[in-house]
Amino acid sequence: MSGTAGPVLVVVAALLAVWYLAAVMLNTPFQRDIYKRGGLEDVSLVQLMTDTLAQDRPVLPSPHQVAVEIWETTAEKKITSKRSLVYHSSITLSSTLLGFLMGTTLGILLAIGIVHSRVLDKSLMPWVIASQTIPILAIAPMIIVVLNAIGVSGLLPKALISTYLSFFPVTVGMVKGLRSPEIIQLDLMKTYSASASQTLWKLRLPSAAPYLFASMKVGVAASLVGAIVGELPTGAVAGLGARLLAGSYYGQTVQIWSALIVAAILAAGLVSLIGLGERIVLKRMGMAR
User: Fold this and answer.
1) Averaged pLDDT for residues 32-43
2) Euclidean distance between CA atoms 271 and 69, whole angstroms
3) Residue 44: left (phi > 0), alpha (psi -120 to 50), or beta?
4) CB atoms closer than 10 angstroms to residue 262
5) Cα separation of 77 and 95, whole Å?
6) Pair 242, 236: CB distance under 8 Å
7) CA dist list (Å): 282 to 111, 151, 211, 268
8) pTM to 2 decimal places
9) pLDDT mean over 7-26
């Protein structure tokens, strides 16, 4: 554990150093304008750097400003408060998990159909791939508008956008996984007079388990992105997407960055949970790596 902690800390320290340097460079022009309007001259470099890292509305907030904002909007706010990032994260997480569940289910079903039907393989797979060429920012408002027109609003439209983004990696990964058994293994199942469903449950699905978990890690991160994007065209008042919108409306860059960092932490947590499930399941199957 200690052997891996060192390189990770070095990378984190390097990223923080680059972040601080970029914050100073991007915030310096505005800070010089402030000095000019205030009639201040011959400001020392140390004072300039200190002031650029303490602006109320910086172009790029410093890491400590983002950290303070996250602390104040999580630890120091009630969970039910509309300013709590825990509250907004829970709203986004609910649509993320629902969309991920639907996307994973849809992806597995599509993959099973594609593997067992040559017609679906030749006709459906190209459309599955082509669906991902449509920008999510273009299709999200259409989904919201169409569903609102038929009286569907709230959690489901955002979940469907998450489903749209998460089903594709699961489909592709499961197709690869279901086709991973070797010819000799499939021939052995035939000698046992196994039906297609028996081959699926006894051979194909166990062989596809590592592929499924790998694709689920990609899918859950994409699902979170879909949930956030789904909150943007609705003018939502709750959720991480709503925090991003509010921050952009009022020029609160610190609020924007804190929401982005919390979203990244949330995605990392979800991926870690799937990784934990992967280790448990594969170990019980005797496929632990």
Assistant:
1) 83
2) 25
3) beta
4) 22
5) 23
6) yes
7) 21, 43, 11, 21
8) 0.86
9) 90
